[in-house]
Amino acid sequence: MKGFAMLGIGKVGWVEKDRPVCGPLDAIVRPLAVSPCTSDIHTVWEGAIGERHNMILGHEAVGEVVEVGNLVKDFKAGDRVLIAAITPDWSTLEAQAGYSMHSGGMLSGWKFSNFKDGVFGEFFHVNDADGNLAHLPEGLDLESAVMLADMVPTGLHGVELADVQFGDTVCVIGIGPVGLMSVAGASIRGASEIFAVGSRPNCVELAKEFGATAIINYKNGDIVEQVMKLTNGKGVDRVIIAGGDGETTFAQAIKMLKPGGRIGNVNYLGSGDNVLIPRAEWGCGMGHKTIAGGLMPGGRLKMEKLASLVLSKRIQPSKLITHKFHGFEHIEEALLLMKDKPKDLIKPIVIIE
Length: 353
Ligand code: NAD
Ligand code: ZN
Known about the structure:
The chain has helices at about 40-45, 95, 130, 140-145, 150-160, 175-190, 200-210, 225-230, 250-255, 300-310, 330-340, and strands at about 1-10, 10-15, 25-35, 55, 60-70, 80-85, 125, 135, 170-175, 195, 215, 235-240, 255-265, 290-295, 320-325, 345-350. Helix 6 runs parallel beside helix 7 (about 200-210). It contains 11 helices and 16 strands. The chain folds into 2 domains: about 1-150 and about 295-350, Quinone Oxidoreductase, Chain A, domain 1, CATH 3.90.180; about 155-295, Rossmann fold. It is α/β, with parallel strands linked by helices. The structure holds nicotinamide-adenine-dinucleotide and zinc ion (ZN). Zinc ion binds near residues 39, 59, 85 and 150. The site of zinc ion has 6 residues, from loops.
């Protein structure tokens, strides 16, 4: 089979590989639609997870099952399925402790285009099929279905990590597709004010549509000062980080947070050795300003619940898609588009079926 792969750090290309083998609990799936992700860019061009050779990229897909192992109960060949980017081993102790994403070791629930070939192949392997596949519900479009693989669960996980409560003031730093879903999530969680930090016009428009009550543009001055002005010097209850770096952004988040506040970080820190926490604004270590950073959890139950959130129109993730390609061979173009990030891009998708 063909796949679009990371050949080495900074290098990508098409490869020919054997079709993956299906174990007794697994499924082999063919993609119906895929989307490249900023994480693929961190992986290839920043070398964020280290060197990989001829590893098929991609972790965002919706697909059709072509084969299942003899112990799989609820899925069969021909089923159309949602698959989260994170596919934990559900029988592990970490998963039983509530941290499915770290099943088998820190971040080890992230398998596609990390420990094994990803979804930019003609076929891909899904471990623990009964736990990691979800039936594609009737009436759910492929565009939304692909966004359910990563953008929706990650954006909403930022909201979960920040633990947004009714009436909270929330600041979302970074309004790419993940941050935009965090804005939508904070809104349905009952935030009273949502400040979205960003500048690209189409992201700003969508942030407003998804529930942002104010837009903070760094071009108009220091973002902490702007947040302080909007909150009469009090700061915000919650910060969700979905863009930026491990230094400036963390320092800004701590500074704009009220004592007792919480930061939910879903941003992938692809470079640098340390995260910067400003000592005084962190209450000299005593400010009760919590930082929670996490990989999204994955799993069938989560996918089913999030799919119903789309079907009931509480979130509209297909609005993130700005560029649409048709045909497997366009994966390369879509990925390079994600790398070059033209101003009008939020999220590209490749329809294959
Ligand atoms: P993206 O690159 O499209 O969006 C990030 C946005 O942040 C961009 O609009 C960028 O302009 C903005 N930004 C950059 N620096 C900023 C700064 N200093 N202040 C404010 N905004 C700034 O990426 P995305 O697809 O939206 O993903 C966001 C992050 O989440 C990425 O790092 C991605 O790798 C990561 N991610 C994490 C998980 C997870 O499970 N935790 C899953 C998927 C993606
Ligand atoms: Zn992704």
